[in-house]
Sequence to fold (173 residues):
Amino acid sequence: MRKLFILAAAVLMLSLAGCDSGATLATEVPTQTPTQKVTQAPTQPSTAAPTEAPTQAETIVDNSQLKPVTGSWMLWYYENSDGTTQVPNSTIQYLFEADGTFTAVVAGNEATGTYTFDGETLLYTADASGEEGTFIYDSTNKVLIDEGAGGKKAVLTNDMKRIAEESTARAVL
Fold:
């Protein structure tokens, strides 16, 4: 019996000595060395429709239509119903962001809100008051027009150079 035990131990030792040091046991996870190739194909993204509606944070907004109106706009002049123009007494400025939000500064008071733009009409809603308004985008002249009561229009431009040049011309007269 002792010889059998020694023989079994010797066979076990010989079999272990002949094993490749890189060999793994069946219960071990094989490791990949740089020279080995990956044998599993990469998984493809799921094409199944989501089962839940995306949350507001996950919703992707197509803001490509907002591009013509994004940026800073300033009241340029008023146009009266008879076609005459009038220089504003105070500065009114809007900043339309690409995410559909805006900030307006009127006589030093700031207001914020949201807006949509369909390529021709900008509809806005102020956060605090809920006040809604509309600007018409004139793509030829690149101005926003607020058609106010009594036929008086407020014309805004995002070309600050144009405002500066006209202010200088008026000062010279």
In short: Confidence is low (pLDDT under 50) at residues 1-35, 53-62. The first helix runs from residue 2 to 17. The longest strand covers residues 71-79. Strands lie at 71-79, 85-86, 92-96, 101-106, 109-117, 121-126, 132-138, 143-147, 153-157.
